[in-house]
């Protein structure tokens, strides 16, 4: 029997689903239901099998031309050429299939890492689990910023409003309630006691009993869900696809000219046709998009290890252009852990907390008394599992007391709390009353000025002395000095009572004990990251809701704020027009007391100045700024689901240093893609030069069609992939950010490709000519084939870096070493095995190999000499 969940009291739903809203499901029952109902996820499109991936490789236009040429070869009786071409095409298909499969697996692993979690009760404990493991009957917590992970019946709703626009199209969040609804048929938008998968908690909090999961949810029924993984092509990939089309037209034109010229020169029609087809296939870098995808995917995997999860592939490319990083302070630049840094008691300021208890004398007693009283006047505590529970400021006090050997549990047992006056914003104080052996002890902590004004005496060296105005002013001066150092300062005072009396008697005639100064300290690694940013031409900007004094102090310590910089508050920001902000934004390093709405203005102002902006955020209201930024970075630990959903990447450790590492990796990936393009296109130009010059000069063909295909479809692929994993250049963070929209061929890359390609072609022709002068045509072709292969392998070493190969290390990229060995082995397999008969090559003697090696090596030597004279 099924029931209509919104029509029932939640107690009836609880009973129907055999669960417990207090204890939740047991772990055993949850596993049983998971097997019964399946995972809480929507069905995805069927993944392509390896066989289909293999077949997809034959959809490429140039491969189809090659297959057509193979068929023509068979019809003309050239069986050997046809068989070899089929083998080469199949091997190329296998390589393409493996590349595509690896890229898909990388993206799938990425998707799993970014899958959201849900907070549930299992076996009486609150735990976070992947949403895919939710089952009917689970008790789920809902908080502002969460995606609702499944369909459920609400049984607790505190100011709960849910944005159901993804499901109903209604843009206004729906106020939720827990009462049963009488109607048996209601539109989704009117079921106010239900929460549905894929909707967003806009405000408040609540709890629900999961009623449906996966394809049984309302979202599953209409098969609409916003996929959190964007696998769209990056701008670079799209530009390269366009480049491929233009190159294709140009190369086909050149091949047509070669074909016609060859025919007019009375060369065999079939030979010229096969040469033109082979050259067209070789010269068009059809493998380039696959290599770019693999390079991006590998880079994404590296970033995961560095605590940055890339959700949207275009972000990898954009990261390399980042020129401004706008970052939160708390938790990103700082440790998100309030820590006691200074104490003032007994007329002395203690700056080194760890050293306090090493000193001798009565000082220890005063400090311990201060920390004991402060710890008693908190609601924070450390639970049995060592977790710190409570307000961060109070947790800092409890931890400082613990470092002094004071366990809160022990002092609370000795001096139990019997009454209290809670903190409020008017008094800015909190007071607790404790029973002790002498009667009752009243302890007050709060804003220094407020507490000091209620004190009439001073605790000094174990005695209670009168507190006159001059001493009060001295204490207030110490407070101001601490505050200037960005410390949050609390004053602590007490008094003893024989009887409790009324609340009005608690906070008067107090005895001042001391001041406690605390701060959320900067992360140790951030200072170096800020220095690295500035060295790389990236401006770090702090945006915080904290006070201006605190923000500036932290900014100075980290190097974000320097002399001449400006720091503004949200109020000041409101007074600026957008045009005024555009003009001033470059001078502002710190923003304090700002709201999430201000962040969007700041990002736009930088973008209006041509900057590529990275922005961090964690709250629901940060989503617009994260979307507006060129790179939105959500916090993995403290970020809401909405913030993560709007972000391009997620920082799993909420650390500023991670953003900088990601920028470095983004720059490296882009440079590696440039290297792969440089290598492939220069090799292609070289092959065109060889054939074009030979045809125009009436020379015999230096290379057979099968030689060209073998080199391009197999030999070149491995070094090109190895360039994609080249380690970061030592100076990668010494350069200014790449301008937005800069061509991949900027900084003279076209010239390098053209000139080095011509050199590769000429060296191959020289080897061929020398072979013709001394030997026969087969030997000459073997020398040309070997020279072309080895020259291209040395060219792969050339493009590894702008610096000398000796400086970066010949073997510093082990994948390049392996790829060169593999490519050389493929060459020797053709020459030294019976395959040479089918390829039309022969075994070379030592002299011939010497000529081949010297000619091939010369491209490396020439390039190294040029690099030497070009160095600064």
TrEMBL record:
NCBIfam families given in the database record: ATPase-IIA1_Ca, ATPase-IIA2_Ca, ATPase-IIB_Ca, ATPase_P-type
PROSITE patterns on file: ATPASE_E1_E2
Domain Cation-transporting P-type ATPase N-terminal: from-to ranges: 4-78
GO cellular component: plasma membrane
EC nos: 7.2.2.10
Keywords carried by this UniProt record: ATP-binding, Calcium, Calcium transport, Cell membrane, Ion transport, Magnesium, Membrane, Metal-binding, Nucleotide-binding, Phosphoprotein, Translocase, Transmembrane, Transmembrane helix, Transport
Superkingdom in the source lineage: Bacteria
BP-aspect Gene Ontology terms: export from cell
Transmembrane segments: 82-98, 246-264, 276-300, 677-697, 749-772, 818-839, 851-869
MF terms (GO), sorted A to Z: ATP binding; ATP hydrolysis activity; metal ion binding; P-type calcium transporter activity
UniProt subcellular location: Cell membrane
Topology term for the membrane: Multi-pass membrane protein
Pfam families, A to Z: Cation_ATPase, Cation_ATPase_C, Cation_ATPase_N, E1-E2_ATPase
Keyword Phosphoprotein: yes
Top EC class, one word: translocase
Stored InterPro entries: ATPase_P-typ_cation-transptr_C, ATPase_P-typ_cation-transptr_N, ATPase_P-typ_cyto_dom_N, ATPase_P-typ_P_site, ATPase_P-typ_TM_dom_sf, ATPase_P-typ_transduc_dom_A_sf, ATPase_P-type_domA, HAD-like_sf
Catalytic activity reported: Ca(2+)(in) + ATP + H2O = Ca(2+)(out) + ADP + phosphate + H(+)
Family (UniProt): Belongs to the cation transport ATPase (P-type) (TC 3.A.3) family. Type IIA subfamily.
Signal peptide start-end: none
Protein name: P-type Ca(2+) transporter
